[in-house]
Amino acid sequence: MPGKKRRNTHRKTRYNGADIALYAAEQNEESLKNQHPNIASVSNSVTRVNGVSTNVVTIYTKDNDTTGMPTELEAKMPDGTIERIATEIITGLGDSKVHFSQVNNVSNSNTATFLGSICCAVKSTTDPGFLGVLTSAHIYTGGIYQDLNGVFDENSQGVAVFNGTPAGIWYLGVLGLKQDLAVVKVNAGQLVDNNYKSFTNGFYAVSNADVQTENPNITVISQNFFTRTAFVVDYNVGLDINYNGIDKFKKNILLIGSTNNRETSKTVSKSGDSGSCVYHSATGKLIGMLLGGNDKFSFVLPIQNTLDLFNLKTI
Predict the structure, then answer these.
(1) 35 lies in a domain?
(2) Are strands 52-61 and 39-49 parallel, antiparallel or unpaired?
């Protein structure tokens, strides 16, 4: 009886490393999480060694247990061929949660001690008289997860408080799979701090070239203008985020950290930083808002598409 034919490991593949990593992550994530409940995320990633980027599948774990986890994964490609790609296992993330707690902090009058940061000011592209500020939607909800997707009706608006002073109304909220954003409509005559960083030059889209750079490439500004720099360590990551004791899965998360090494990185955010602006240091272009963090990374969500959807523009 003839033996099985071996796959030609030296054949030229029509797929690049990014394709293989994407399919491998998507096809293996569910089974890996079922086998290893301590896995927080499985991400198609790049890792940089001696300045050279290599595609991998990164497995993030909540604790330090890596028993039985694979060093490589298979991916079935659209043409039916099987490819393999190396894994990278990053341990010790801890719990992932929102980080409630620029000069102003912001809160809802109903939950006045539940503080967050203001990202930046916005104006409407259709209403010349509209002035607002951005922050996280979970500041509006007091940390409780609620499905939000649009402009609030009058009964749902509530009073927004800046540094303990009523300053506007909660105008809009989007809280779902890929977003956690709210807009406060500032009261007529209410001044918006002139020291807020302006973002009039568009948005920055993170790519593989921005991951694990030699020098920090991200800047974060929170309440009291607490400013720090960070590294992009991964992007388009899915994680369970804890909202007041309830885990909710979120996609499209950008991971930033204190170092360019995913193993040694520490979070660069803390309580009260939700809603902080996060921008590309070299260009000054806004990337998004800070959502929260765990022991190793801070989480950022891009916001451009959401603002465009509601005819809002950063100023």
Answers:
(1) yes
(2) antiparallel
192: which residues sit within 8 A by CB, 6+ positions away?
Answer: 121, 131, 133, 186
The domain that contains 284 carries what CATH number? 2.40.10.10
By DSSP bridging, strand 227-243 and strand 246-257 are antiparallel
Q: Looking at the structure, do residues 190 and 202 belong to the same domain, yes or no?
A: no
- Convert the pLDDT of each residue in 11-64 to its tens digit: 556 899 999 999 999 999 999 999 999 999 999 999 987 778 899 999 999 999
Are 114 and 203 within one domain?
Answer: no
In tens, the pLDDT along 69-122 reads 999 999 999 999 999 999 999 999 998 988 754 445 777 777 766 788 889 999
234 found inside a domain: yes
Contact 213, 231 (CB under 8 A): yes
User: Looking at this protein, which amino acid is placed at residue 182?
Assistant: A
DSSP three-state, residue 309: helix
In a domain, 248, yes or no: yes
Residue 207, SS3 per DSSP: coil
Q: Note down the domain range covering 188.
A: 106-194+308-314
245 and 277 share one domain? yes
Q: How confident is the model at residue 231 (pLDDT cuts 50, 70, 90)?
A: very high
Please provide the average confidence, as pLDDT, over all residues in the chain.
89
Alpha-helical regions (H) of the chain: 17-35, 137-140, 304-309
> Residue 162: is its pLDDT beyond 80?
yes
Distance in angstroms (rounded) separating the CA atoms of residues 54 and 295: 25
Nearest to 291 by CA among 254, 261, 247: 254
CA–CA distances in Å: residue 153 to residues 4, 42, 81, 111, 121: 66, 39, 53, 19, 22
Q: How far apart are CA 99 and CA 120, in angstroms?
A: 17
In this prediction the pTM is: 0.87
How many folded domains does the chain comprise? 3
CATH number assigned to the domain comprising residue 132 = 2.40.10
* Among candidate residues 260, 197, 214, 202, the one with its CA nearest the CA of residue 234: 260
Q: How far apart are CA 211 and CA 313, in angstroms?
A: 27
